[in-house]
Amino acid sequence: MPHNLEASSSDPCVQQLAPFWSIIAGAGRAAEGLRNDWQQHLQYVKTALGYKYVRFHDLFHDDMFVYNEVDGRVTFNFQYVDALIDAMLDIGVRPFVEFAFMPSAIATKLNTTFWWNGHGSPPTDLSKWEDMIRATMEHWQERYGTEKLEQWYFEVWNEPNLDGFWSGTRSQYYELYEATVKVVKGTGSKLRVGGPATSNFVPDTRFDGELEDLEVQKKLADVNLQTKDIDALKWKPVWTEHFLNWAHSRNLPVDFVSSHPYPTDWALDKTGNQSRRSRHLDATPEDLSLLREIVSKSPPSSRDHNHDYVPAATYLARTMLASQGKIDSIAYWTFTDVFEEEGAGIEPFHGGFSLVNLQRIPKPTFHAFRILQSLGDQILECNKSDGAIVRNSKSGLLSALLFHYPPELKTSPPPAHNNRSVAHETGSTGEPVRKSILIRGLRPGAVFKKETLTPGGQGDVVSAWEKLGSPMHLTRETTEFLRSYATTLPTELIKADSEGNLLVEQGLAPWTLVAINQIVA
After folding, report:
1. Helix, strand, coil share of the chain (percent; to 5)
2. Catalytic one among 32, 155, 159, 347?
3. Is Metal-binding found in the keyword set (predicted)?
């Protein structure tokens, strides 16, 4: 009987495994990064998952006090910015700088997004924006040096195709990009600047003009929603090709291209009130392939209970393996529940985007990235239905990842906005299966550590919290119990047999992840 995954320790590498998932961590707004718990959470995920950069919003929001204008006299204050970036650098991560949003003193439209009133609008005077960027870059150059800045990334704005984030036109965003890239490159020609950081992939023309065409959005009910197979539609990243052609025509550098796919959003419409349809399971890898092709040819609601459950972890592991070779980095949004776009979460597990909750309790998604990070760099065998066998080129040690993403669910885990029952329904989808891994060519007695993450088992912290009655407020004792329960997965040591074969065969409940790592050659 064939095994789901089989390889020999001496097999040639079929593909390099680059940990693109551990380059950038996503976060909320800059002011949240001044909090002690935010910094503790960053240290925790940096140590466990190896993140190199953090991307966050609102460097120039009023609560960072950068831009100050009194009686026509402008001054710049970088004390809060320094405190944030110094803390990040001390932890060992660099900033992935997002130049946004607009200070209220120079915003053409106020209070466009979130309860804390982000100002997502063009400046009243582009020269004042340029002065602020110039002052920021000069300050950083003096404080950190040009060589350090060459290791950072500088991104112009966030999701300018969405009205809440950018009330201006596409051309006005392009003007902002041009002004910004010229100032940054004036600081140092090797500094990396990019964009357009637009939101999602769409199958229609709503974002093809200067502003989002709301009439196209209204017509979705008559057009796309009647399509039996929505994945047969031609999905494309917003603005990307147009932006690259425009930049080429202006002879402007684009050192990196950024885009925001949201595979767990409802497809076709913004709220799900019309369609409540999700795209298929491989939508994200396919979108990323298209994005890579466009670049090469060119001159998630923060309240979704599926974020807290095991299916999200299995989806992440599968998608990261399936996306190899398609992108350079991907930032999971976000690393911490210290995230206030919709205000503070009302429960310890409220469906926040994060890898760890407010009490620094790791969620199953944290383990998905930890397991991926433990794999080597040479894929020997991989398929998107089962997992992969991987070798570490430096140590020669083998590792494997086996999962059961139930074929009954052909999409990403559907959104469970403010509805835990949908997450429970997703977790109960599918039937148990038996799967096996065979690794040959080992030294007899070679030792491996096997970890298992399964719904309802250790590591599925929400199930333990629910068994306690889903308390809204955690005592210190309960916090420590849940943190311990969440941190360590069921583990056992297994060995290769006398012929140098390691056979792992077991029944897997739906959504189960099994990690196998060689610890003794």
Report:
1. 35, 25, 45
2. 159
3. no
Last residue of a domain, one of 335, 351, 374: 374
Domain around 135: 18-374
pLDDT of residue 331: 82
The answer for residues whose C-beta is within 8 angstroms of residue 266's C-beta and 6 or more apart is 272, 275, 276, 277, 278, 415
Task: State the Cα–Cα distance between residues 449 and 515, nearest whole angstrom.
Answer: 8
| Same domain flag for 361 and 403 | no
pTM of the model: 0.81
Burial bucket for residue 2 (CB in 10 Å: 0-12, 13-18, 19+) = exposed
Query: Is 322 found in the same domain as 426?
Result: no
What is the pLDDT at residue 301?
40
pLDDT at 294 (0 to 100): 55
Place of tokens 């949003």: 101
Do 223 and 284 lie in a common domain? yes
Task: Determine whether 159 is an active site residue.
Answer: yes
Which domain CATH number covers 497? Answer: 2.60.40.1500
Q: How many CA atoms lie within 13 A of 488 on its CB side?
A: 8
- Predicted local distance difference test score (pLDDT) of residue 69: 94
Q: Kindly give the parts of the chain with pLDDT less than 50.
A: 266, 270-274, 299-303
Residue with tokens 């050659």: 521
Contact 195, 243 (CB under 8 A): yes
Answer positive or negative: Cα dihedral of 338, 340, 345, 350: negative
Which 3 state secondary structure label does DSSP give 59? coil
Structure tokens at 398: 């083998």
Distance between CA atoms of 130 and 112, rounded to whole angstroms? 22
User: What is the sign of the dihedral through the CA atoms of 406, 434, 513 and 452?
Assistant: positive
Domain final residue pick, 374, 404, 420 = 374
Same domain, 329 and 392: no
Angle, helix 126-144 to helix 170-187, in steps of 10 degrees: 30
462 vs 486: CA distance, rounded Å: 9
Contacts of 56 (CB under 8 A, 6+ apart): 26, 27, 28, 29, 30, 32, 33, 95, 98
Query: How does 308-339 read in b/e, with b if 16+ C-beta sit within 10 Å?
Result: bbbbbbbbbbbbbbbbbebbebbbbbbbbbbb
Residues 412 and 350 in one domain: no
Same domain, 310 and 240: yes
Q: Give me the pLDDT at residue 414, please.
A: 55
SS3 481: helix
Residues β-bridged to residue 435: 506
Q: What is the pLDDT of residues 19-29, one digit of tens each?
A: 988 999 999 99
The span from the CA of 520 to the CA of 516, in Å, is 12
- 226 backbone dihedrals φ, ψ, rounded to 5°: -90, -5
pLDDT at residue 212, rounded to an integer: 87
Total domains present in the chain: 2
